[in-house]
Every structure is written in C-alpha cells, then in structure tokens.
Amino acid sequence: MSAPPAPVSFRTALRYWLKLGFISFGGPAGQIAMMHAELVERRRWISERRFLHALNYCMLLPGPEATQLAIYIGWLLHRVPGGIAAGVLFVLPSLVVLIALSWIYMAWGQVPAIAGIMAGIKPAVVAIVLAAAWRIGSRTLRNGLLVGVSLAAFIGIDLLGVPFPLIVLGAAAVGLVGGRLRPALFELGSAHATTADGVPHPAALIDDTTPTPAHARFSWRRLATVGVAGCALGLAGWAGLALVYGPDGELPRMGAFFGKMALLTFGGAYAVLPYVVQHAVEQYHWLDAGQMIDGLALGETTPGPLIMIVAFVGFVGGWTHALFGSDARFLAGMVAACVVTFFTFLPSFVFILAGGPLVESTRGDVRLTAPLTAISAAVVGVIASLAVFFGAHVFLDRGAPRWDAIAIGTAAAVALLRYRTGTIKTIVACALAGLLLSYWHG
Predict the structure, then answer these.
(1) Which of 13, 115, 327, 366 is 20 to 30 A distant from 75 in Cα terms?
(2) Of 53, 71, 63, which is closest to residue 17 (Cα–Cα)?
(3) Cβ–Cβ under 8 Å, residues 39 and 51
(4) Residue 418: burial class (beta carbons within 10 Å; 0-12, 13-18, 19+)
(5) Name one GO cellular component term (predicted).
C-alpha cells in the first residue's frame, strides 16, 4: 500500500472547489461522481469508506446532498473555514452564470444558442452517472442483502414511483434491524483491499484509520454553538430585510419562503419543485408557468445543484416587481437572486457544521453505521435509476434512437471506466463533439 498524499493546503483546496463549481453538471449524481473520481480515486484526499459515510449522512438531510458533501469534506480538511469555502465556491459559479442568463432571458427573451454543446454534454452526464453507480456499487454491494436493497431502491423509484425519502427511510430501517441481527453483513471492510482493477488501494490523506481531528470531535457545546449561530444568522438576515423593506416586502417574503423550502427539500430538487411552483407562480406571482419551465431548462444546462433554479425565480421576481424602480431592474433581480440563494443554502451549512462531529463519532460502531451502509446500497440503485431516466431522454427522440448521442455516451463511458479519463477532459471532449456535430448537421 502506497503512502498517503501530502497534506492539502487551503489554497489548493480552494482551487479545486472553485473548479468543481464551474464543471459540476449532471445534478447530484453527476456531481457526487465527479467528487468521487477526483477526491477518492485520483487525489486521495479521503478514503472510500469515509466518503460514503459522509455521503450517507448528507442523503438523510433536506437540501442538495452534493453541496452538503462538499461542505463536509471541506470541513474535515480545513475546519469551519474549509467547509464554508467549499460550499460557497460550489454554489457561487452557478449563481453568477444563472444571474447572467436570467438577465439575458428577461432583457431579450431568449437564451444563447448552446444546444450543440449541451447535446454533447448530456450523453457525457449519463456516462458519468453510470460510472458513479459502477464505482460505488463495486465497493458497497458486497453481499446479497445489500444488492437486494439496491435493486429494491431501483425498482421503487424507477418503476413504482416511491418517494425518495421513503426509500431512504426504508433502507435505514433495514440497516437498523440488520445491524443488530447480522452485523457482519453491514461491515464494508477496509477500503484498501483492492480497487476495481484488483490492485491494492492506495492510502488516503483522510484514511479509514486516520484519527478524528480535534475540530471534528463531538461535543454538545459545539453542536449548540453552531446551531444557535446559524439560526441567529438567518433571523438577522430576515430581520434586516424586514427593517428596510417592511415585513410584507417581496425580499423578506422571498427570504422567509425559501428558508422554509430549504427545510422541505427531501428527495432532491424535483421533489420540491411542485411546492415552489405552487407558491412562486400561483400565490406570490413572482413569475408565470412558462417562465418557470424556461428556468428549469436553464437550471439543467448550468453547473451547480439543480435547486439553483430558485436563483432564477428570485431574479425574475425582482425584475418583474421592479423592486428598486423600473430603471434598476437588473439590480433588483440580482439582489433577489442572492437573497433567495442565501436562505436556500444556509440550512445546509448549519446541518453539516453542527452535525458533522456527531456523524464522525459513529464511524466505529457497526450498529450505528449499518443504517448508513444500507442507505449507501440504496443510493447505488437510485443513481442507476437516474442514469436510466437521463438515458431515456438523451438517447431517444420520440422512441427513435439518437445515434449521435449514443455514440458520444458510449465513448464517454469507455473513457471513464476503461481508461479512467478525468471527468473534466471527458466533458470538454464531449462538448466539442456535440458542437462539431451540430455544425455538421447544419
């Protein structure tokens, strides 16, 4: 087994999180796949088991799990400043891009022609998701019971339409009972056994046996301090808006609504979108149904978590209501988008920075980790179902195969799984292929 890599400097981590923010296409599964490939496989900043342990906790929480996972790993590496930096840089590029695209959309009524590039990126996203399911599944599904949990999750979410929170709760229940009756089935073993190629797995900087750092040790005092500080920050932000614009102003109303929404986003962005539509479109009239559909398309074609569509909702609401007057619509939209983003993501930071030490304290007790192991198995099935969902939309056009997309997706999958090409290189190559094909077809 090779020696672990050298300690990661804060500046190096900042560069990585910023880069991830710009290339994190593909929703949570694609983003988690990118982090896994970079942080576990290539850079070896964190071991497989600790990566999955953190991911399983994030899957239990409301909010964007990929963003929360970035916050968690950043916090493990560089304490609270590292967690805050990782989360902010993961979201900031998406916010900037969406503000720019929302401005173009509202000012000129159309989005720049990026169809060719996206036609290449979308098959790559399917391949990235498949690669994530393969890599995580090859290490997680170590026995028939965990394979069964994964298969049940796939069938439940893909064929039966079972809500994602129920799948997570069901898997946790299996682990809770199984961890007491058959704990050996939920011990994943050492991540250093072998890689997918059967060679010894190299050591990681944050390894299975790396002692919990001082800042990650649980204490009730730290839990209370971070929880109170997070709640105070949110209340202070809303109170400041209410003081300036009145409690019934659009900005305080947006802050209150999206802060509440952030606590209900179990199951990902798609699960909460009907709730957003009901209030943003029908109750508050921040935008209309057609604009909401266009915003979803923009969210799908930009990096960052899909829940960032709320920034579009905020921008359009600020622009439409001309909060700062008819001559300052862009400023109103930009401020509203930032307000919405702040209240949407604040709970995620609090959940991780407050609850992370508690999660770290459970790593050695299989009775406590068994529910998380079962959730990890279910996640493999959920990721596979997402690949099927994406594939049906990317590779088929009204039931007819789209051979260009199939060819690009197949090449991307081979590059990722067989030749272990980096995610960024794969996305760039596929984007160029899509652009060239669009010119070829005229």
Answers:
(1) 366
(2) 71
(3) yes
(4) exposed
(5) plasma membrane
Of the candidates 124, 125, 144, 127, the one whose C-alpha atom is nearest the C-alpha of residue 135 is 127
Distance in angstroms (rounded) separating the CA atoms of residues 400 and 405 = 12
Query: Helix 329-360 and helix 220-245: axis angle, to 10°?
Result: 170
Query: Worst-scoring range by mean pLDDT, 8-12, 196-200, 327-331?
Result: 196-200
- Give CA 16 to chain center in angstroms: 16
User: pLDDT of 368-415, one tens digit each?
Assistant: 678 878 887 887 887 788 778 778 878 988 888 999 999 999 999 999
The answer to whether 390 and 125 have CB atoms below 8 angstroms apart is yes
* Nearest Cα residue to 416 out of 83, 70, 161, 36: 36
Can you read off the two tokens belonging to residue 87?
Answer: 């989360």
Q: Are 272 and 306 in contact (CB under 8 A)?
A: no
Host H or E run for residue 196: none
What does the alpha-carbon distance between residue 284 and residue 326 come to, in Å, rounded to a whole number?
19
d(CA 14, CA 269): 26
* Domain positions in the chain: 8-142+188-208+218-363+395-442
| Cα 94 to the center of its chain, rounded Å | 12
How is residue 6 annotated by DSSP? P
Q: 175-193: per-residue pLDDT in tens?
A: 989 888 888 887 755 444 4
Tokens (6 digits) for 374: 């079962």
Burial of residue 353, with CB atoms counted within 10 A of its CB: 0-12 exposed, 13-18 middle, 19 or more buried: buried
Task: Give 346's Cβ-side CA count (13 Å radius).
Answer: 25
Token couple for 346: 């604040």
DSSP class of residue 218?
-
Q: For residues 382 and 129, what is the distance between their CA atoms, to the nearest angstrom?
A: 10
